[in-house]
Design a protein that fits this description.
Elements lengths: L1 H16 L11 E11 L4 E9 L12 E9 L2 H7 L1 H4 L2 E3 L5 E5 H6 L6 H5 L8 E5 L3 H5 L9 H9 L13 H8 L5 E12 L2 E13 L2 E6 L1 H10 L7 E5 L5 E18 L2 E16 L8 H30 L6 H8 L1 H7 L3 H6 L2 E12 L5 E2 L2 E2 L14
Parallel strand pairs: 1-4, 1-5, 5-6, 6-7, 12-13
Antiparallel strand pairs: 1-2, 2-3, 7-8, 8-9, 10-11, 11-12, 14-15
Helix pairs in contact: 9-10, 11-12
């Protein structure tokens, strides 16, 4: 009897503890789905895209109408609190999908203003970080194609960038981890406004490179592809190459394996990069004969194209930006912990003068659904249950 009473007591306590202890009714708060930060003469400008909900309903049931608010203050925290005057409700950042930084803020000092994102318990570290040369507020106000909130649509679209091999979504957690590594450097996608059919839409336009606490430059799309190949993050992308005949072929990347081995001799660094990339033949000219000879030619052409992208990315990072976002420094720190202390203060020079050897092997593992040999289609295999069983 005592056991039954104890069980009933425990169940009643569990029922009383159900729910979210810090929950708020939607009509009492303003849910922020995207925010923009930029530098002003007197401090910072904070822009937020909030959800205008209707009545006492859940977030899924509410009418998704977004509005963008802006506020200029000396600190971002003061701007957040001051927005209560405009919205008449407290801002909630637990559903923020993305944060857009203005270039003027990024090139000045981006770590100090976003310190609040690490310090406060409300912002999510899986929020995506983007940088723009436009006004972050204008990015949040761009038209949507399939949704009602720009922030949600842009965050969802970032998931599809892995199929292009041209961009890498970067969340705050990854950015902070790279900035706290032995070589404090990271990167983030660039976004810009594009006017099309009398409507403005936001689109990705390259990669911002960040050294310590400042943005030091950008990579274009081709250089970003090279970066992702070097970082072993180009899986599921595509690659196109031109053959000696002038025909162009495309391969869909299915698998990529990159091995990076640094060797340090004094302050002279040598890095050997072995890369194996495999994929499916995605597109060839209709009149091309696909056989072992042509496949070998395609693989060689694709290899050289990949090498070109990687060399473009390396040249930009080493000679112009002098910023290691390839994790070479991390690998040297792991392999040569004693020597690292002697060269870490001169790492930019060591990285910039490093000799990098690229060994690339490309293989087309699948030709697609069309099977050809010497220009002749192989006979179609008919399932046995369709055979003509006439005697």
């Amino acid at each position: 009897m005592k056991k039954i009473a104890m069980i009933c007591l425990c169940l009643s306590l569990l029922m009383a503890a159900a729910g979210c202890w810090s929950g708020s009714d939607l009509d009492e708060v303003a849910m922020v789905f995207g925010s923009g930060l930029d530098k002003t003469d007197d401090g910072y400008e904070l822009s937020v895209e909030i959800l205008q909900s209707s009545g006492e309903v859940t977030a899924e049931e509410s009418v998704h109408e977004g509005i963008v608010l802006s506020m200029e203050r000396e600190t971002l925290f003061d701007a957040v609190r001051s927005m209560i005057r405009q919205e008449k409700r407290r801002l909630i950042f637990t559903h923020t999908n993305m944060i857009v930084l203005g270039e003027s803020l990024a090139v000045d000092n981006l770590t100090t203003p976003i310190d609040i994102l690490k310090r406060d318990q409300m912002p999510r570290l899986n929020s995506l970080l983007l940088i723009t040369t436009d006004d972050p507020k204008d990015i949040l106000e761009t038209s949507t194609i399939s949704g009602d909130l720009t922030s949600i649509e842009m965050a969802d679209s970032m998931e599809g960038t892995e199929f292009t091999g041209e961009f890498k979504p970067m969340d705050l957690k990854t950015v902070f981890e790279m900035l706290n590594a032995p070589v404090p450097a990271t990167f983030a996608p660039m976004v810009q406004i594009n006017s099309e059919n009398e409507e403005t839409i936001a689109e990705l336009s390259g990669t911002a490179v960040i050294n310590e606490e400042k943005m030091v430059g950008t990579l274009n799309v081709a250089e970003t592809k090279g970066l992702l190949y070097l970082r072993d993050e180009a899986e599921k992308g595509s690659i196109t190459a031109e053959l000696t005949s002038g025909d162009k072929v495309s391969m869909e990347v299915q698998d990529e394996k990159v091995s990076i081995e640094p060797s340090l001799n004094g302050e002279q660094l040598t890095v050997d990069i072995d890369m194996e990339i495999a994929g499916t033949l995605a597109e060839v000219p209709n009149d091309m004969i696909v056989n072992e000879q042509t496949i070998q030619e395609m693989e060689e052409a694709l290899t050289e194209n990949i090498r070109t992208y990687m060399q473009m990315g390396l040249k930009k990072l080493q000679k112009e930006l002098k910023t290691d976002i390839l994790d070479f420094g991390v690998l040297v720190h792991q392999k040569y912990p004693q020597e690292w202390h002697a060269i870490k203060d001169d790492w930019e020079d060591v990285f910039s003068n490093a000799d990098v050897n690229l060994m690339i092997e490309t293989s087309i593992d699948h030709e697609g659904l069309i099977d050809q040999d010497d220009g002749e289609k192989k006979p179609e295999l008919i399932p046995f249950f369709f055979w003509d069983h006439k005697d």
